Amino acid sequence: MSLLSRLFGRGDAASQAPESEHEPQDYKGFAIRPEPIKEGNHYRVAARIEKTVDGTARTHSLIRADTLSDRDAAIDASVSKAKQVIDEQGDRLFG
Description:
Strands 1, 2, 3, 4 and 5 form a 5-stranded antiparallel β-sheet that branches. The chain contains 3 helices and 5 strands. It has one domain (3-94): Double Stranded RNA Binding Domain, CATH 3.30.160. The chain has helices at residues 3-7, 13-16, 71-89, and strands at residues 25-27, 30-34, 37-39, 42-53, 56-68. It comes from Mesobaculum littorinae.
């Protein structure tokens, strides 16, 4: 992969795709799906937060700058960060 590709995020698509194989965790009426993103030997903290508001399914993608070398730790951190965002923003998360 060229230096420019790494700098501008056009690396291997498989290494940048989120990994979503976990059942959603329910938290205060929101569904949290941890989706850590594999980047080289590390995993970027990421999750999808979902909720049905007024009959409409809403989704918010959470991607943090934090990276961890352990996948399970990245999953735990993704859920923790999602809960923090829900606590801080609630339904305002969806606009």
